Request: fold
Amino acid sequence: MKDITPQQQKVLDCIQVYINKTGFPPTRADICRELGFKSPNSAETHLRALEKKDFISIESGASRGISINNPEIKHEANEYPIVGLVAAGSPTLASENVEKVLNCPKGFFESDFDYFLRVRGLSMKDAGIMEDDLIAVKKTQEIKNGDIVIARIEDEVTVKYFQRSAPNIVHLKPANEDFSDIEVNLEETELYIEGKSVGLIREN
Amino acid sequence: MKDITPQQQKVLDCIQVYINKTGFPPTRADICRELGFKSPNSAETHLRALEKKDFISIESGASRGISINNPEIKHEANEYPIVGLVAAGSPTLASENVEKVLNCPKGFFESDFDYFLRVRGLSMKDAGIMEDDLIAVKKTQEIKNGDIVIARIEDEVTVKYFQRSAPNIVHLKPANEDFSDIEVNLEETELYIEGKSVGLIREN
DNA sequence: CATTATACTGTATAAATATATAGTATATTT
DNA sequence: AAATATACTATATATTTATACAGTATAATG
Reply:
């Protein structure tokens, strides 16, 4: 992180204060009003300087598209969506699948994650994953053998242990003797890995 | 607070998730994209309904001028100690037993709780409680049959199902067939109930 | 049975906003 | 001495965005 100039610090503080006060970031004009600038370009150039120094991110084209980069994890809390294991289709954050959102501190689990998945069924019982548990899912394709993955095979979504047995053969193994392994031949069947489990929460 | 419709809840969640993801609220068009609406007016009317019911505030004329009203639940976070199952003696919050502290929002589980207990052994495996899991423990003497309790019998601390079989007989039942029930005659043996499990967290 | 709330599509537009361009001036670095 | 970063004013404009208006349809309410 490069050093910030006093004026840039003022602009950064102004953005933070504005967000705290209103709930959304300021426009260039808002910053000018707050800090007494007479040209929107004053704000613009400061914003670009802050962006270059990585203090903020600016989403191009979006109004008020400023977000403050906060690499240090201060017990900031986040709202994470809880999605259900929909029988057909992958768990998506977009639509009717979001059950509710759960407030959880950033860095709660060792790895960061993207959403919670509500578990249906007992196929991972012996891994201590019970019905209605919430799995913290990190969307990633970096899977190692033995990871617990959220996998979609032809519109069916399941939670299983991942094991690549051969270059084109993946085994999805349940942790329950009442269920059997799923062998997926990647040349015949489409397998999409939604992500992997990085944690679990049970409310009882 | 008036009651919210399922669809309005989705829109509200969508706003919250969008803010988490981007740092700023969505536009009407953004909401449509996320939820699959084809007219910006769909988002607009839902927003106005949410505003009328006081779930959100909308700043007139401002782009992305949506803020979520959440005066009551301020997602206050607390530091909870993680204590180990010390072989002799009850889990105390004395500093030598505190492994570390975990930041967790208030009201994270349905019931409030006092500390986390690091689980040793697999005696509650079939209840989905695995080695190294963290049990959220509420210090209480109000125990019902079937509750998962943290019990101390003569300096030995265990986690078990609680069942009062007779006025003076308590059974502490494991959830693992390799372990056997512990029958406690309250007239002969001292049983102290440390508290009960109200939730579980697994970091993996 | 009329009214109101919910839940949408589709179109239009004034206002809000990001952002480029053209300058001026000072301090710092190479 | 030239280049670069900072720190502004002033103007212009394409795009983004909020928001109104016109419909359709269904369920709930009084």
User: Anything to note?
Assistant: Chain A touches chain B through 49 residues (CB under 8 Å). DSSP finds three helices and eleven strands in chain A. Chain A has a mean pLDDT of 85.
